[in-house]
Design goal:
By secondary structure, the chain is of the alpha/beta class. It has helices at residues 2-17, 57-63, 79-84, 112-121, 151-168, 189-208, 222-231, and strands at 39-40, 46-47, 65-72, 92-98, 124-129, 176-180, 212-218, 240-244, 268-280, 283-295.
């Protein structure tokens, strides 16, 4: 009996490790090119109506998963700084690689060579795309990059731009691309509808090109909105959820705004502290702190 339980347990672990992260979150059907509805299988995998998983997606997802600490900072650090920071407890770094809404547009260090250097040093990379923002975004410095009157069209165009920019710096297919949507007043119905239309269109375009759409926002705003949409059965939602809840301990699966069964396994990042200074190897950076159990970039 003990041996049988052990075998079943190992099988469940292997199933979780090979979850298809290119699919919509567990509990939500995904659109397919053939027009057939997706079906949720073991461990949240999504296949065609016959139950078959997408070819190659499981193996690719397994290779790209990281669990551990990550930091993000507005301007991509130099390779020398990243080499010095290998002495820290961080294993991954987020970089704001593209998007018209970036606060730090001048990313002089960020190119294919930098990505390759990160790969050689053993860093994992979380690519963040800061595009158009919700029309009811809270931050005043983001209001000038509002989604506009054609959210689906803009989402499609920016999804295409996110893929193009990712390829330019050596980020391969099956990598996650995280859409940064700063906190917005999701309870305003018209604004929520516009924002959701943009996000879904961006997700579809990113998926169409073979990448994994992720989503970053405040736990009490965009993340709550995505959870409500998931419960309502909305299609084309992000595959990975990156939620900001500061001034707390890291908790991937204890976030109150998310169902304990949603966006798992290996589909969550918790940003638990922000705008803090840390010094490692003689170099000081102002960073946000994150705990990760999610896919990271595959770099060529």
């Amino acid at each position: 009996m003990r041996l049988r339980k052990l075998i079943i347990g190992l099988a469940l672990v292997l199933t979780a490790l090979t979850a298809d992260l290119s699919a919509s979150p567990p509990g939500v059907a995904a659109d397919h090119p053939t027009g057939t509805a997706g079906t949720v299988g073991p461990a949240g995998t999504v296949g065609t109506a016959s139950g078959a998983a997408r070819p190659g997606a499981q193996a690719a997802a397994k290779r790209s998963i990281f669990r551990g600490r990550a930091f993000d900072t507005c301007i991509t650090p130099s390779t020398d700084t990243m080499r010095r920071w290998k002495r820290s407890s961080y294993g991954a770094v987020a970089t704001y690689y593209a998007g018209r809404g970036r606060a730090c547009k001048n990313q002089s260090q960020l190119n294919h060579g930098w990505m390759r250097a990160m790969k050689r040093m053993g860093w994992r990379v979380l690519p963040v795309y800061v595009g158009s923002q919700s029309p009811c975004v809270v931050a005043k410095n983001k209001k000038h990059v509002s989604i506009g009157r054609n959210p689906a069209g803009r989402g499609r165009n920016e999804g295409r731009d996110a893929v193009r920019a990712a390829k330019a710096v050596g980020i391969q297919r099956q990598s996650p691309l995280y859409l940064d949507m700063e906190a917005y007043t999701y309870r305003k119905k018209s604004c929520a509808n516009t924002t959701l239309s943009f996000i879904r269109s961006w997700d579809r375009e990113v998926r169409r090109h073979g990448y994994v759409p992720g989503f970053y926002s405040s736990a009490n705003a965009g993340v709550r909105h995505m959870e409500l949409a998931r419960r309502a059965g909305v299609r084309d939602l992000p595959s990975v959820m990156w939620f900001a809840r500061w001034h707390t301990k890291p908790s991937l699966y204890g976030e109150p705004m998310l169902s304990s069964q949603a966006w798992r396994p290996a589909r969550r990042i918790h940003q638990y502290a922000g705008n803090v200074k840390e010094r490692h190897g003689g170099r000081t950076l102002t960073i946000d702190r994150n705990y990760v159990h999610a896919p990271v970039a595959r770099i060529s």
